[in-house]
Design a protein that fits this description.
Layout (H helix, E strand, L loop, with lengths): L1 E12 L6 E13 L4 E5 L6 H8 L7 E6 L2 E2 L4 H6 L1 E4 L11 H11 L4 H14 L15 H13 L5 E5 L7 H18 L2 E6 L2 H7 L2 E6 L2 E6 L1 H7 L3 E7 L5 H11 L1 E6 L2 E6 L2 H14 L4 E7 L3 H9 L10 H6 L1
Parallel strand pairs: 3-8, 3-9, 6-7, 7-8
Antiparallel strand pairs: 1-2, 1-4, 4-5, 9-10, 11-13, 11-14, 12-13
The protein binds adenosine-5'-triphosphate.
The site of adenosine-5'-triphosphate has 15 residues, from strand 1, strand 2, helix 1 and helix 12.
């Protein structure tokens, strides 16, 4: 479905002596199979949208090659565009027209009959909770409704490959959950391939068969969410005590069963592999030493921990990436 080799995009910013090159995407290889749902994760400015824009032929790569649905992004851009659905971050509706007309025009532009475009459009309106808004102008819709209309536009022609750039940004939790369900159904009911970028780690985790993590324009990890999380060395165990005096002894016990032991006042934390096996013995040990627990928390590794392990930064970290530093 998608194959890319050495895909790169370099932008030149500034003027005169201030001119700088920004390597937004720096040699990306991709192989995405039919029917896969792939989550494309990365911090702000990592190169997600730029990659999507190259794959959807909106931006010409500076280097590298890519085929999408079997068509070359450089020489067969019309065929690529006709064979995909794309929901951009910016949206794609024209505020002055009626929403339903936009949707049916869009379907017809992709070769559907007016009747089929209206039927599929109305079905999507119902699934994405836009009932009753067919005859409303997008300018009179809420932000969340407009976002869902963008998604209808990207899906109305039933593409076999859909690119979604942060589809749930701006949606309330209930609309987000509804869209998750819809994305999952695109694959199960229609066999569609979905390539989505998101800032929500739980979203990528819940929806994706495979996660690609991009940082500074390069793919730093590509695997199933489970395999990625199993790379992180164990669950995070956090033990809190009433008495600070218990802490040093507990820290030394944790040193023997885990890694990354940290002490913060009356709390000790550590990463422990196989925590379900280790914790009962740990609690017995603490009890025999007379240490009184005030609280215990066990947190499974998240995709953020994966990113932290790989790069030393959090995905939610707002510090500029290398690419952004170069762009300053
Ligand atoms: N047209 C452009 N001209 C100059 N620099 C650009 C241009 N488009 C993107 N960049 C830079 O390229 C880098 C990657 O941007 P991109 O939008 O692909 O990141 P992203 O991962 O999609 O970020 P976000 O999560 O914030 O949407 C950033 O440093 C950005 O500032």
């Amino acid at each position: 479905m998608i194959h890319a080799r050495g895909l790169a995009a370099t932008f030149t910013t500034g003027r005169g002596k201030q001119t700088r090159e920004v390597r937004a995407v720096d040699g990306v290889d991709l192989d995405i199979a039919e029917g896969e749902v792939v989550g494309f994760l990365g911090p702000n400015g990592a190169g997600k949208t730029t990659t999507l824009r190259m794959l959807t032929t909106l931006l010409r790569p500076t280097a590298g090659t890519a085929t999408v649905n079997g068509y070359d992004v450089l020489t067969e851009s019309v065929q690529v565009r006709r064979s995909i659905g794309y929901v951009s971050q910016a949206g794609s509706t024209f505020s002055q027209a009626l929403a339903g007309d936009e949707v049916s025009d869009h379907g017809q532009l992709y070769g559907m009959s007016r009747r089929d475009a209206i039927a599929r459009g109305k079905e999507l309106f119902e699934h994405l909770q836009l009932d009753g808004l067919w005859d409303r102008m997008p300018k009179n819709m809420s932000g969340g409704q407009k976002r869902r209309l963008d998604i209808v536009m990207g899906l109305v022609h039933d593409p076999s490959l859909v690119f979604l750039d942060e589809p749930t940004t701006g949606l309330d939790p209930q609309a987000r959950a509804n869209l998750w369900e819809h994305i999952a159904r695109l694959r199960t009911d229609r066999g569609a391939t979905v390539f989505l970028t998101t800032h929500y780690l739980d979203e990528a985790d819940a929806l994706s068969d495979r996660i690609l993590i991009i940082d500074n324009g390069r793919i730093v990890a590509a695997d199933t969410p489970e395999n990625l999380k199993s790379q992180v060395s164990g669950d995070l165990i956090r033990l809190e005590f009433d008495d600070h005096a218990d802490v040093p002894a507990v820290a030394s016990i944790l040193e023997s069963v885990g890694t990354d032991v940290e002490v913060d006042e009356a709390t000790v934390s550590a990463r422990v592999r196989g925590s379900a096996r280790v914790v009962p013995g740990l609690l017995r040990d603490l009890e025999s030493r007379g240490a009184v627990l005030a609280g215990i928390e066990i947190v499974k590794p998240t995709l953020d921990d994966v990113f932290l392990t790989l790069t030393g930064r959090s995905l939610r970290d707002d510090t500029p990436t290398e690419t952004e530093k170069e762009a300053v």
